[in-house]
Amino acid sequence: MRALLCGILVVALALVGCAGAQKSNTIKIGWFGPETGDSALWGQAELNTVKMMADDYNAQGGIQVGNKKYMLEIVPYDDKGDSTEAVNVAKRLVSQDKVVACVGAQGSGEAIPVAPIMDDAKVPLVASTATNPKVTVTEAGQVHPYVFRACFTDPYQGKVAAYFAYQRLNKRNAAIFMTIDDPYSTGLAQYFKENFEQLGGKVVAEVSYTSGEKDFRAPLTKIKAANPDVIFIPAYYNDVALAAKQARDLGINQLLLGGDGWPSDNLISLAGKALEGCLFINHLDFDSAEAKPMRDEYKAKFGKNAELNSYMVHDALMMVIDAIQRAKATDGVSIQKALETCDIQGITGHIKIGPEHNPVGKTAWLIKIVGPDMKFQEKFSAE
Amino acid sequence: MNQFLQQLVNGLSIGSIYALMAVGYSLVYSIMNFSNFAHGSVIMLGAYFGFFALTWLGLPFGLAFFVAACMTAGVAVVLERLAYKPLRDRRAPFLYFIITAMGASIFIDNSVIATIGPTPKTFPPALLPSFLQSGAIKIGSLDVGRIDMAMFVITVICLVALILFIDFTRLGKAIQATAYNMKASALMGINPGFVIILVFAIGGALAGVAGVLYGMKYQVFPQMSAITLKSFIAAVFGGLGSLPGALLGSLLLALIETFVSGYISTQLRDIFAFCILIAMLVIRPSGIMGKTTEDKA
User: Contact B134/A41, CB-based, under 8 Å?
Assistant: First the structure.
């Protein structure tokens, strides 16, 4: 009897062990992002988009790799917008779920600690909107072999913001209001400051707050006392809306300028009139012709507007699929090699991966808030 | 000087929100002798009730406010009946009350996240009356937000009404008596069960008002219960169980926080707040105006 039980146990364990093996004609691609928390809106938009894209491909029988067709399976995890959680889910994706590539990691705060994990596991990651340079290049200047991104980086964004503030808006005295514990915010603030001062401007106040904080009156009063002519707020849309409202309540009526953390369907409804006439930098023009097919499909399927992250993760997934098709292989190492020579036309612009695994010279779009709309003003492309 | 005055105004304004929350907290403590950690969740529910009364039911603002306060009073009483009364009947140690309070708080918060969702909501400015719109009023060289002004006034009205009620009405005296000694007041003919329900209802209504005001000033989101930590510090600082103490503690705490944030560093603000709490608990545990109760057996 005992021998029989042991036998059954051994067989059961063996079967459990086999369960992890990938079905031979499915490609598993992992996604992680904030399904809950402050950035939940963006995370959910990304998840909806990748699922929608996978469904579209699978409806046509899958993607063509060499002379075989593979179905796409998205393995999603919620990183709650927290860096520790992101590390945990990334480890799960590469070791338990055995995905061949990952997309997502929308915040630099989550992407940076995940980068070494992807390198170790030899699973490529294409980040959607993580813009801090440390996502693809370490402090020591080494490129993370397995990390890429679909967006421009903060040094570029900071340069563009400083250029717009100084040349186009003729501002000379800037104040900065940033999130002290978010590397995206502090990084972008730093690049803006360097470039603005290089152009001849002066940063009269640099004030910060801790994420999760809702009351900004004390730091905003400091900014008011410094009397700037423009206030740069490199933060996420939720905090931006709160800060803008509270600034107006304090009689701070200067122009507010922002980065790619601003664009969101909810930004204007949260801020009301406080952001009227303010400007920010975006990765694309939401009203462009290239974005229209996806925008319409998303609206029809989910009933709400696609967010910035939808378009970016769309291009990130396109990059992965293009790499798989060019490599004619479905393992992480081959996909990585192909990603290094990625050169595609995404819906957010021309994406040509450079030596630091970032798209080279990607266009930045300056958008102005006019009433309830976001109106395109000007675009900026280097190279 | 101007910045100093502006920061002073900021501090008083933030203090008025803390005061409204801390007073409800202290009130329950004075009767029940335990910290109702679920108070924050009730505040959060108040904000949501106010939001939905305004947007879904389309009630005029004043009525929505009143409805929110009534509903939170109801929630607080239900909470008392379901969670605390069974423990009281069983003469459970106070630790159990605190754990139950925390459990109730987690349950309420996550119920909201699971049903309504975690995305923050704002009170649509179009549905708010003009004295609550965004923008500043100029008083001399200071700018005071219109909303901040209104909140301060509403807080003062609520607290004055509360103090008048507690000090000058029979029910208020009954509450005071029960807070002082529940057994003796029961012997004098005061129904302790009724007083407890009344106190929770008042505390809940205040929480509702605080929630709606907070939701209007900032946003309505499920993690709002975290702000009660500040009101807890304020209540302890001023003296748990004492209503004037809660008010004083809140104002002082808010002023200290604002000045540290404005003149030293925003990051050090919470360190200062918590250090003060620790110092207070070590030096004078009963708080600034708390009753130093010793067992005079």
Answer: no
